[in-house]
Predict the structure of tRNA(His) guanylyltransferase.
Amino acid sequence: MANSKYEYVRLFEQPDNLLPQTWIVVRIDGRGFHKLSDKYGFEKPNDRRALDLMNAAAVSVMKDLPDLTIAYGVSDEYSFVFHPNCELFERRSAKLVTTIVSGFTAAYVYQWPKFFPDKPLQLSNLPTFDGRAVQYPNASILRDYMSWRQVDCHINNLYNTTFWSMVLIGGMTNVEAEKELQGTVSSDKNEILFSRFGINYNNEPEFFKKGSVVYRQYQLQEPEAVGTTTAHTQQDDEPISQLSRTQQEKIRKLRRKAQVVVEHVDIIKDDFWLRRPWLLS
Ligand code: ATP
Ligand code: ATP
Ligand code: MG
Ligand code: MG
Ligand code: MG
Ligand code: MG
Ligand code: MG
């Protein structure tokens, strides 16, 4: 029943509930961070403080939203993964995306002074993020998504490490370095790094090569025990919505209590997922 003659305007709002039982990935990305990183003097190619700040903001978001399973971050972007059982905001896309984007941005801005004590934020150059939600129908495709982001991290980091070595150590101009790198493959860049600058790319920090993965830490599985532990009981596989209220509450409590960790490891190979079976179950 309408409360006023204006109530009909609600009909213009479109539903945007995401499909049930799919993995939801909300990817956020810093807006104009190329310029922002110049403005606040980020070190090139990888400013450790800026990456630590991204990770600190991601940990805040993970702690705030127990429905999140895992997150992966590189450069000015972060992907947050909601479990298929997530019923937050009735899975409404805009609600999920905006809650993550504003929560992340608030945590990023709040913690900025801790990571950049000598570089106060200016109202005319505030960090902002955009975001989108994408649905993936099964764990295998979700893993391909995560692999896609980590491969991207590797490709960009190899390029950036080579580019900035040519500029900062080799004394080339940006244009000269860019021109020489055009059309090169990975082995060419590895060769340039090694022969000209004595840099073995393999020895670069894992933090830069692998990006950051954030997740709730329970008990690590021993690889040899993996075969037995991946066989879940029927109850484990049941959607959370079919569990009783007390069971749901128990799972939420466990998630809330679990320690949130940040690691710089390979998430493309099976090992990471086999050792942490709770992430995809
Ligand atoms: P858009 O608004 O389209 O996303 P953008 O300028 O943010 O534009 P991106 O493709 O997102 O472009 O790239 C982010 C850029 O931010 C990088 O290319 C790099 O220049 C800079 N950047 C982000 N994080 C760091 C960091 N930790 N250290 C140094 N530079 C960084
Ligand atoms: P939801 O997360 O679903 O939006 P909510 O608690 O934010 O829940 P809203 O319907 O958005 O609920 O209503 C916002 C509420 O916040 C108001 O009902 C009021 O209680 C409070 N509020 C917001 N702004 C003010 C203000 N300036 N002064 C006092 N109370 C306020
Ligand atoms: Mg963008
Ligand atoms: Mg960006
Ligand atoms: Mg980006
Ligand atoms: Mg409100
Ligand atoms: Mg309101």
User: Anything to note?
Assistant: Residues 132 and 219 are 32 Å apart (CA to CA).
